[in-house]
Amino acid sequence: LLAADGTVAATIFAEMSALAQRTGAINLGQGFPDEDGPAEVLDAARRAISDGVNQYPPGRGMPVLLEAIAAHQQRFYGIRLDPQREVLVTAGATEAIAAVILAFVRAGDEVVTFEPFYDSYGATIALAGGTHVTVPLLAPDFQPDLDRLRDAVTDRTRVILVNTPHNPTGAVLPRATLELIVELAERHDALIVTDEVYEHLTFEAPHVPIATLPGALDRTISISSGGKTFNTTGWKIGWVSASAANITAILAVKQFLTYVNGAPFQPAIAVGLGLPDAFFTGIAATLAAKRDVLSAGLVAAGFTVSQPAGGYFVVADAAPLGFDDGAELCRRLPELAGVVAVPITAFVHEERRAGYSSLLRFAYCKKFELLERAAGQLAGLG
Ligand code: PMP
Ligand code: GLN
């Protein structure tokens, strides 16, 4: 995890945000919203601090949040959870991913993910000494070839790690693919770990948690977070739901990673999870409109765009503009267009970068006027 010179290599997101800050360019690199979320949620955190909710909360998470997570899973997906035994609060989805991988993956165990993959997957699999096996998602639709998926899962597979809606591609896995994943996990006795941080940000159809598929619940570990749903990425309140035995194994790791996290933010996220349906449909509709503004701008600028079905990001191919090296283009984009993006090669193992070299990820979780300004500036690229 260290750079060749022994220093800590900054994540691509930190590097690109620093580039935006240094150059004053519009930051469509790191995925975080530039507006606050619902006032009820923010007020609840302020109130909790005033009310003295400032010391270590319980190890599993505060009962009010555990109950709100269970009620949310029941309300949106019909999943029944025992809040005291089948839910665990974590420091964002990031800690959940690390704790789950460290809990279940031993040296030599294989973990199957799609590729491109969110950066922490590769890092935590490496920390656990696991072997990372990937199934490619290719432009333009970024859906996996199901035969390649079948080939990737074997008796050596300990975990199939799924992420839908997907970062960085915006792909949403259809039910048939989720069913195949459940079938393969059953056949090879693997766990399914599912990262659903964008569960409320789907644009075509409601999110289908893999845990709701027949036969999936017992072997599935579901991960989500309040960051994306409530525009509170800096609060780092995430959670895991799974069988009681699996939660116990994950808690055993979590207690030595952070012990506990974010006391006053926990009751606030509980308020968020209980907001009326209109809130949840509203955020998806607004984000879809933002996606459309940025996608149209990218198309007008000459990129080939893969329209995302969910999440924060759109992938644009710069090859039609004559740029074949996306990493190089991202370094120059502040000067060429006053915009920062992230190269898709940052989400891909070195040996597979060639297949993704001209692709860029742009975040549209930003104010409309900023997206319109970015679109205008990018129009000068061609
Ligand atoms: N998984 C995915 C797919 C993400 O995009 C992110 C962050 N945006 C995370 C996990 C991390 O979530 P958190 O900020 O809650 O740790
Ligand atoms: N998940 C966000 C992204 O993909 C950023 C998270 C981070 O900086 N680690 O941009």
Instruction: Please name the CATH architecture of the largest domain.
Output: 3-Layer(aba) Sandwich
CATH topology type of the largest domain: Aspartate Aminotransferase, domain 2
Q: What kind of sheet is the major sheet? A: 7 strands, mixed
| Integer tally of domains | 2
Tell me the radius of gyration: 20 Å
Structure characterization notes:
It is a single chain. The protein is an alpha/beta fold. It folds into 2 domains: 12-30 and 278-378, Aspartate Aminotransferase, domain 1 (Alpha-Beta Complex); 39-273, Type I PLP-dependent aspartate aminotransferase-like (Major domain) (Aspartate Aminotransferase, domain 2), CATH 3.40.640.10. It has 12 helices and 13 strands. It has helices at 12-23, 39-50, 63-77, 92-104, 119-127, 146-152, 175-187, 244-257, 265-273, 277-301, 326-337, 368-378; strands spanning 26-27, 87-91, 110-115, 131-136, 157-163, 191-195, 220-225, 237-241, 304-306, 313-317, 339-340, 342-343, 359-363. Helix 4 packs parallel to helix 5. The site of glutamine has 5 residues, from loops.
Characteristic terms for this protein:
single chain, 382 residues, Aspartate Aminotransferase, domain 1, Aspartate Aminotransferase, domain 2, 2 domains, seven-stranded mixed β-sheet, globular, binds 4'-deoxy-4'-aminopyridoxal-5'-phosphate, binds glutamine
How would you concisely characterize the structure shown here?
The chain has 12 helices and 13 strands.
